[in-house]
Amino acid sequence: MFYMEHSNIPEHLQIGVLGEDIACAHLEEKGFVLVERNYRKKWGEIDLIMKNDSKLHFVEVKTVSHGTIMELRTAVARKTYRPEERVDGRKLKRLRRAIETWRLEKREGGDFQLDVVTVRVVPREKYAAVEVIEQVA
Hints:
alpha+beta, globular
């Protein structure tokens, strides 16, 4: 997958924003509709809120960059660093609180799930690989 640069965003935040852009586009290609992006409260943030049929998907996006496509493939093959590992118990607790708050604010009582989307980008080669991990909690 290819992506565009975000030159108007500070460099230290660009990879994360790119990852969210790529994850959102990937899910939209699969038939999801974006409901909201970057819902923030002091106790947690939800990167993407997407809808597929009648189910809401609260999506945590984890992005990591690599120098080359070969480096990315090696990391995946060796399982040396997995971005989803950064979604630990503390992060899940914060996500659950943010989801509960969003649902109360929007009066949304329907079916939902929490997913993680990992995005591995190679900025120099404008390449990305995406993996969706459904129902993490």
